[in-house]
Amino acid sequence: METLLKVGEIIPLPKILDTRGNLSFAENQSHLPFEIKRAYWIYDVPGGTERGGHAYRENTEMVIALSGSFDVLLDNGEHIEKFSLNRSYYGLLIPKMMWRTMVNFSTNSLALVLSSTEYSEGDYIRDYHEFLNTARK
Ligand code: TYD
After folding, report:
1. Could you tell me the residue range of the domain that residue 23 belongs to?
2. Is 40 touching ligand 1 by the criterion CB < 6 Å?
3. Which of 25, 30, 85, 109 has its CA 20 to 30 A from that of 47?
4. Mean pLDDT value of segment 24-30
């Protein structure tokens, strides 16, 4: 069995502190190990909702809690790690082939996701057993 990937990594993003309000940013190459092909965001999440429940074959992502907080559970087929995101200057880098679930969204939370690929339903693995079989190949 090949060595499984690290489940995820918190990347500190630049923080420009200013009395007028703080500013953070993320750039291709400097902060992301991929070129951004797509951005999407998740918002107005009702309390108790679970999102995700899938893995991507190729897509790598960075998730940023722009507002509020939520937890991201990452599973590489061998172990699960929980990342609690609640600061807009930390990005969670999620390599491809991680089973990911997003839970515990606070009221008015806003999740920004930067992706290495354009949307493709064919890139999703939505069946957990298929994920385990693919991850352990
Ligand atoms: P999905 O990725 O399953 O949501 P989550 O992981 O947050 O639970 O996407 C939900 C729906 O939105 C699904 O029908 C596909 C569609 N979608 C797009 O059309 N484009 C996108 O970039 C994304 C992320 C989803």
Report:
1. 9-135
2. yes
3. 25
4. 94
Pocket test for ligand 1, best of 36, 40, 120 (most atoms within 8 A of CB): 40
Please give the mean pLDDT across all residues of the chain.
Answer: 95
Is the CB of 96 inside a 6 Å radius of any atom of ligand 1? no
Q: Check whether 74 has a pLDDT greater than 70.
A: yes
Domain membership of residue 99 (yes or no) is: yes
130 inside domain = yes
Domain holding 75: CATH number? Answer: 2.60.120.10
Q: Is the CB of 51 under 6 A from ligand 1?
A: yes
Three-state secondary structure along the chain?
CCCCCCCCEEEECCEECCCCCCEECCCECCCECCCCCEEEEECCCCCCCCEEEEEECCCCEEEEEEECCEEEEEECCCCEEEEEECCCCEEEEECCCCEEEEECCCCCCEEEEEECCCCCHHHEECCHHHHHHHHCC
For atom 5 of ligand 1, the residue with the nearest CA is 52
How many domains does the chain divide into? 1
Confirm whether pTM is higher than 0.85.
yes
